[in-house]
Specification:
single chain; 366 residues; alpha/beta; three-stranded parallel sheet; 15 helices
């Protein structure tokens, strides 16, 4: 695993060739390899300062220059950057890097990291736990209620808002989202969770009463078109025919799930490498619409930055558009969805890459 590179020494002592599984995409891998090289050459500036400028960085794994305001949160936090640099340096000692992506999705990024001097890269994804679409026993009632509601909605009509296992909003931001949803007029399913008092390092909780955090009368006014829930069965929801858009925090697993089910994304990254994922999907690949790509959780319980109702409404309207350029974008996502499934079949790109990886392990052990 990415954060277990220290175990490579133990493997070497036992005569086991070191390989690393990289759960993020090839784009972030290429980004970190570039940062590590710049750091070791003494050419890496203060990223925490750069993020507040209009500067751009040329990143080999991205076709377009990356505005520094979209630098991923994990590298602008000074306590995290040295750890990431050290881990990336150790990656270069591996016999190979297994990445959770597929060739048809990240063709450019994979080409950028598959160069002389880097270990071989094996894209074997998308690796998804499709069984997670079914709930645990204690979540069965909530699951049934959500799926029955979706069953009653027209195909492609629902925008799904869900921000991962760590995503949450306090009252002020929830109010802006509510106003945006009401004005946009689209059917919606919104997973709204309460922030932990420990900030992003704590697990979000559930609101006991949504009326305490949402504008007065919102639930009544939108009862015919929307549903607010706590925990959400994300995989099952994305796979439902009524869902036509996904407002997401842009965690890599969520990005792959959206691709698998052919659902376009509204990009609202929060932390970790999510800003880079968002930029790749919005600008490089054209699979997503921006909600607010420079959003950052500032590690305070209230989340810090505020995204306005106008920004959210505009992003949702573009995401759910059925005609013009956005309509073609939706068609492209559907096409890549088919590619993601084909990649895992016999003769597919990821299946073939896995075979090469297995053969390489056998050769190195021999």
């Amino acid at each position: 695993m990415l954060c277990c590179t220290a175990m490579m020494d133990l493997g070497s002592e036992l005569g086991v060739p070191p390989y690393v599984f990289y759960p993020s995409g090839a784009n972030f891998l290429g980004f970190m390899l570039e940062l590590q090289a710049l750091h070791d050459e003494g050419k890496l500036g203060d990223l925490a300062e750069l993020k507040d400028t209009e500067s751009e960085m040329a990143i080999p794994s991205l076709e377009k220059p990356l505005p520094c305001k979209f630098l991923p949160s994990v590298v602008v936090e000074k306590e995290w950057l040295p750890l990431l640099i050290d881990n990336t340096r150790r990656l270069r000692e591996a016999r190979g890097i297994v990445v959770n992506t597929f060739l048809e999705l990240e063709t450019y990024a994979l080409g950028s990291v598959s160069v002389a001097g880097n270990p071989p890269v094996y894209p074997v994804g998308p690796l998804l736990n499709l069984n997670s679409a079914r709930p645990e026993e204690e979540e069965e009632e909530e699951y049934k209620e959500v799926m029955e509601w979706l069953d009653g909605q027209p195909a492609g009509s629902v925008v799904f808002l869900c921000f991962g296992s760590m995503g949450s909003f306090a009252k002020e931001q929830a109010t802006e989202i509510a106003a945006a949803l009401e004005r946009a007029g689209h059917r919606f399913l919104w997973s709204l969770r309460r922030p932990s008092e420990m900030g992003i390092t704590g697990v979000p909780g559930e609101y006991e009463n949504f009326d305490d955090v949402l504008p007065g009368g919102f639930l009544d006014r939108t009862s015919g078109v929307g549903k607010v829930i706590g925990w959400a069965p994300q995989m099952a929801v994305l796979g439902h025919q009524s869902v036509g858009g996904f407002v997401s925090h842009c965690g890599w697993n969520s990005m792959l799930e959206s691709v698998w089910f052919g659902v376009p994304i509204g990009a609202w990254p929060m932390y970790a490498e999510q800003q880079l994922n968002a930029f790749q999907f919005v600008e490089d690949l054209g699979f997503a619409e921006e909600i607010r790509m420079d959003y950052r959780w500032d590690y305070r319980w209230d989340g810090g930055m505020m995204v306005t109702a106008e920004e959210i409404e505009g992003g949702i309207r573009r995401l759910m558009a059925a005609e013009n350029d956005e309509g073609r974008k939706r068609k492209t996502v559907k096409e890549v969805s088919e590619m993601s499934k084909k990649a895992l079949t016999e003769g597919g790109s990821s299946c073939s890459s896995l075979s090469r990886f297995i053969q390489d392990v056998i050769d190195n052990i021999s």
